[in-house]
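Before surveying the methods themselves, let us examine one representative protein, pairing a chain with its fold in token form.
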Amino acid sequence: MENQLLHTPDGVRDIYNGECKKKLYLQDRLHRTLLKYGYHDIMTPTFEFFNIFGSDVGTTPSKDLYKFFDKEGNTLVLRPDFTPSIARSAAKYYIEDDMPVKLCYLGNTFINSSDYQGRLKESTQCGAELIGDGSISADAEILSMTVESMLESGLKNFQISVGHSQFFYGLTKAAGLSGEQEENLRELIANKNFFGVEEFVDSLSMNDKLRKLFGLLDNFDLQDEQLMEALKLAKGYDEILSSIDTLLKLRDYLKAYGIEKYISYELGLISDYTYYTGIIFQGYTYGTGEPIVKGGRYDKLLSHFGKDAAAIGFAIVVDQLMAALSRQDIDVPVIENSSLIVFEEAAYHAAIKRSMELRRDGVNTQMVLKDKNKTKEDYASYAVDNRINRVEFIEE
């Protein structure tokens, strides 16, 4: 019990001093990027009814949720994923809207999974959802916001891998895979075990065109000519054809935004969230093995809450982004305008007057009663440690 008084549970941590300032500054920069695109803030509850995240929604598995009960006996869960919460809100408050709704958010998510060894179970996400627009231009806008957000964070070397949920679905349907076979294949792809994928495909009976399409699953950066060849192979397989055609059209929009160098196409990309119906994407950079951003199109999710509307969104995992910036020695440039007033007790009137003047001028000012056992150098060192720009001494 004594240890628990000073320690946090596995998967959560304290963030303080300079790291906390940097995180808050980074969150503000990311948030401002979303606002520049005309998105409006929304806040959803930290906990919701269990059925908002039930298995039929296609989000986090029940075993990975933090569950508890209210006084009426209803099962509640800590939010593991923002998208279903915002879908619920949009269905409630924008049920009659037939124009696009653009929402952005910042908050924490909670996943109680033993599979996340060494990873945070509480993490901060900043993201956006575009509801009521099923166009490829909407897909491109979301990806443009994603790239601009990464650049605003200070990252220079990152890649956004883009795939399509219907490519995998179309393959499994065309190959006539059973539910168990589909899950086995999904697990092999998720683990990047492409030798296993090749062995699995070799065990199936299929024509050469379909076999070649399966062969694209292990390519992490499909070029234009490879996508065009895949389009030819996909004739006769509607879901596969549509998914590749969408990516080819999307490519032209992204060139108009000038962000194509940050985009790669990966037909083997899959997501744990089964509510995705269109493009899916994940962002990676050096210094972290986990995605720093993830998102996709989910055109059927809102119907679960009573509103038929296309939608697409993305979430930046701020903690992963912070870790990547640190490991790449990219400083988050927190701008300080602060002052420390060290005063003797007899001079407190003058110290208070001076501190109030500085605060009116927009300077963050703290006052410290001088300790006779400390030198001016001690206070100067304290100021450096706490990123304080100036030190003033007010004596009797």
In short: The mean pLDDT is 93.
